[in-house]
TrEMBL record:
<feature type="compositionally biased region" description="Polar residues">
    <location>
        <begin position="57"/>
        <end position="81"/>
    </location>
</feature>
<feature type="compositionally biased region" description="Low complexity">
    <location>
        <begin position="177"/>
        <end position="186"/>
    </location>
</feature>
<feature type="compositionally biased region" description="Low complexity">
    <location>
        <begin position="111"/>
        <end position="140"/>
    </location>
</feature>
<feature type="compositionally biased region" description="Gly residues">
    <location>
        <begin position="267"/>
        <end position="285"/>
    </location>
</feature>
<feature type="region of interest" description="Disordered">
    <location>
        <begin position="56"/>
        <end position="165"/>
    </location>
</feature>
<feature type="compositionally biased region" description="Low complexity">
    <location>
        <begin position="241"/>
        <end position="263"/>
    </location>
</feature>
<protein>
    <submittedName>
        <fullName>Uncharacterized protein</fullName>
    </submittedName>
</protein>
<keyword id="KW-0732">Signal</keyword>
<feature type="compositionally biased region" description="Low complexity">
    <location>
        <begin position="194"/>
        <end position="212"/>
    </location>
</feature>
<feature type="compositionally biased region" description="Gly residues">
    <location>
        <begin position="141"/>
        <end position="162"/>
    </location>
</feature>
<feature type="signal peptide">
    <location>
        <begin position="1"/>
        <end position="20"/>
    </location>
</feature>
<feature type="compositionally biased region" description="Gly residues">
    <location>
        <begin position="86"/>
        <end position="110"/>
    </location>
</feature>
<feature type="compositionally biased region" description="Gly residues">
    <location>
        <begin position="213"/>
        <end position="240"/>
    </location>
</feature>
<feature type="region of interest" description="Disordered">
    <location>
        <begin position="177"/>
        <end position="285"/>
    </location>
</feature>
Length: 285
């Protein structure tokens, strides 16, 4: 049987198509196919990829200072404070910023960061006397004690990605970088004891007797702790930074004038309080 040149050409093309090697998908294509096959639908994988843990930030707290006392006489006049509880600065209160906790990542994403706000001051009230002659007796003229200033703790969210729940995602997920959330606690402000200032004239007299003119005791200033979130896969653990603690100094006593007399345990500076910064712990990788 004779075969035409045209028929021979068609037969050669057909044989060539049948014997050609099939296209081999790349590793990335295979992984994507596997992920899509095991997800609820083709777009579900994209939905999981953007669900990050929410960040958290607490606001700053305001001041809680004790009230000040000011007695101002004339240059030739007299200021006299007699008896315990007279001319006493108010006590510092308590000011604390709230804690902040970043959300945990869902699926295979990073945890949210957390930042707590700064705490306000909690200083004891000061006492100021000015005039020609100043007399403080029997426990009068006392600066207020410092209160408590504390910033809240901060905890970064852990990265998502549970190997047990996501085992089907295989090596692609294990190589993903899912970072733990950073954590930063706010600064705590001062909690100083109230100071006492007696300012007489150049020719006047300042007299403190009977445990009068005492500086206030320092309070407590503490910054919150910071805990970085744990990383997942090849992601790093979150960093942690604790805030600064403020001053908790005892109140000072200042007397100035022509003549100054302090007797019976008077004009004593206040004791210092406690100032402490919080612990900072970086998250595990």
């Amino acid at each position: 049987m004779r075969i035409s040149f045209f028929a021979f050409t068609i037969l050669a093309i057909a044989i060539s198509d049948v014997s050609a090697y099939p296209a081999v998908p790349s590793l990335g294509e295979l992984q994507l196919i596997e992920l899509r096959k095991n997800s609820l639908d083709g777009d579900h994988i994209l939905t999981r990829a953007i669900r990050y843990g929410g960040s958290a930030h607490s606001g700053n707290s305001g001041d809680a200072n004790g009230g000040a006392v000011t007695n101002s006489g004339s240059r030739t006049g007299t200021v006299s404070n007699d008896g315990a509880g007279t001319s006493t600065g108010g006590l510092g209160g308590t000011t604390r910023s709230g804690s902040a906790t970043g959300g945990t990542g869902s699926g295979n994403v990073s945890g949210g960061s957390a930042t707590s706000g700064n705490a306000g001051s909690a200083n004891g009230g000061s006492v100021t006397n000015s005039g020609g002659t100043i007399t403080n007796t029997d426990g009068a003229n006392v600066g207020g004690n410092g209160g408590t200033s504390t910033s809240g703790s901060a905890t970064g969210g852990d990265a998502g990605g549970d190997a047990g729940k996501r085992a089907f995602e295989g090596e692609l997920v294990n190589r993903a970088s899912r970072y733990g959330g950073d954590a930063s606690s706010g600064d705590a402000d001062d909690a100083r004891g109230g100071r006492v200032v007696n300012t007489g004239s150049g020719s006047g007299t300042v007299t403190n007797s009977g445990a009068s003119s005492l500086g206030g005791t320092g309070g407590t200033s503490t910054s919150g702790s910071a805990q970085g979130g744990s990383g997942s896969g090849e992601g790093s653990g979150g960093s942690a930074s604790s805030g600064n603690a403020g001053s908790a100094s005892g109140g000072s006593v200042t007397n100035s004038g022509g003549s100054i007399s302090n007797t019976q345990g008077s004009s004593v500076g206040g004791n210092g309080g406690t100032s402490r910064s919080g612990n900072a712990v970086g998250g595990d990788a």
